[in-house]
Predict the structure.
Amino acid sequence: MSESNAAFATLGKHLKYAREQSQQSLAEVSGAVEIDEKTLERIELGFERPSEDILLLLISYFDVQEQEAVQLWELADYDSDVPEQLRVESDAKHGGKPVIMLMAMDMRTVYSDGLDINNGKTGLTLNFTQSVDNNQKQQPVARVGMSYDQAEQILAQLQMTLLKARYLRKPLALPPYSQTKTDSNS
C-alpha cells in the first residue's frame, strides 16, 4: 500500500472493526448500505475511499457515536466540509459533550416484485428486487436491514394493514340474519 493510501488504511481498519464488532459479514453490511461487497472490502483494506454518501451511511449503520464520526470523516480526507448530518453541538443537557446527529433523508418509493431475505446474528436484511427482462432476471432495487424485534413488529403491522385492505376492497360478508319471533304472551 502506498504512502498516499495510509489515511484510507486507517479509515478502513476503523470501519472493519465496527463491522466485526457488530458481528456482521461483508455481504450483510454491503447490502444494508447498498454497495458492492468487493467495494466494501476495498474500503476496509484502504484501497478505496468511500464516497461521502457511503461514509455517512456506514457511520449511521454502525451507530458511530459523537467525535468518532467526525474522526472517520476526517480520515476519509473530507475534513474541510463536515456535512449537516454530522452536526456537532455542545449542549448543557448532554454534559457539554458534543452530540452527533445522523439523519437519512432519502424518501424514494421503490417498487418491487421480488424479495430475498438474509438473516444474521443480529437481524435481517431484506433485498427487494425487480424483474428486468423476459427471462425474469432480478435486479436489486433496495435493501433494508433490521433487528429481529423490529421485523416482528413490521410483520404484525403488515398483517393488520393487509386485513384492513381486504376488508375495504370487499363488502363484508355477514351471515344471514335470522330472527326468531318470540311471543311475549307465552
